[in-house]
Amino acid sequence: MMDGKIVVGVDIGTSKIVTIIARVDDEAVNVLGVSEVPSKGVKKGQIVDIKEAVDSINNSLDSAERMAGYSVSRVIASIGGGHIESQNSRGVVAVSSSQGEITESDLNRVIDAAKAVSLPSSRQIVHVLPRNYVVDGQEGIKDPIGMTGIRLEVDTHIVTAATTSLMNLEKAFSEVGIDIDGVAFNGHSSSLAVLSETEKELGVVCIDIGAGTTDISIYSEGSVAYSSVLPIGARHITNDLAIGLRISLESAEKIKIFLSNTTKKSKIERLGETFEKENKNTDEIDLSSLGLPEDLRKVSNKTLVDGIIRPRLNEIFTMIGIEIKRSGFAGQTPAGIVITGGGALTVGITDSAKRTLAMPVRIGLPTNLKGLIDEIETPAFATVVGLSKFGATLDTKQSLPFGLSLPDLGNLGFNRLISRVVNLVKSFMP
To answer: Does CATH number 3.10.590.10 belong to domain 85-161?
Structure first.
């Protein structure tokens, strides 16, 4: 990893688009600028309207640029949605050196050999993640460079996505005037931000609950072994509240956030009287401070939490439990479950997960952050922090045909500037 590399990550979610501009080194992610805007043109993690998605991405990038004082030209983008699939593959090569010393070119060759899986034309590889290497039958090697052997094998975890989704993502960014340096699966990004090395080694399940989808990444023996996406998320809880209380989705979202906040001890002081009223052996919650258009003032806490929210949470975790069994890693994750994403803030989520899955549970917060971190030290920003960590490990030097390369001119953002000028001219045309 390069010291002090500036990385721009854009997390395209169902409910929000988040951009982070950060200087990443081996120790921490130093946040220079961050912005969050409501997401339009995105459903269940996939772009469904290019024009609306372009506007949302543009707004998010503009806000982050203003905060950081930095012009963006290249980004690392997230991808999610039900089309994401994963499989494990093994590659085998002979060590090329006559002395039998394993070099980086041997590693590249063996990973290319593992990549050679039969995929339909409608799918594309997003990640090839090495799990462990085997040198002449010796297993469990994490980094074989410099070792001596004749036969080199690698176990990899391959994440694939629908080609059309990747093309739509690329199209949206090219219309903004931005190049994509890399694409990362949401679940993988989140796990980079919230999991500790000990948890990965023991075996852990990272669950990123977004608005429209839930991403699952299962780690075993220090590396990711299974990835999948469930088409259910925190938006379903909002829908349930809207139907149960006969109110709009906007009001239901406000109530959900209000309930989540009241469970956080750090916010007791801010909530003042409201919180005190709730704690006085009464079941009623005063919602008058939210200013709902439906004039809903008092509502039963038991009705909301036990009657509406908990059954939906139990359903989500039952589906996750089925997915863990399907992966073949059930019982191999003693570190338990780490829940992250915006849905992790839902009231009663840890109790529901513990009860349904019978495993230790904790809420995952992004770690090793510096700089402008007040806003982003919450599970909702785990993916975008993970994107910056992922981007720092990529070799993103621009290449040209015939082995030529472009000089590094910094992030001048020419494409974006041209795109803005074109859009401005278009706005004046009849």
So the answer is: no
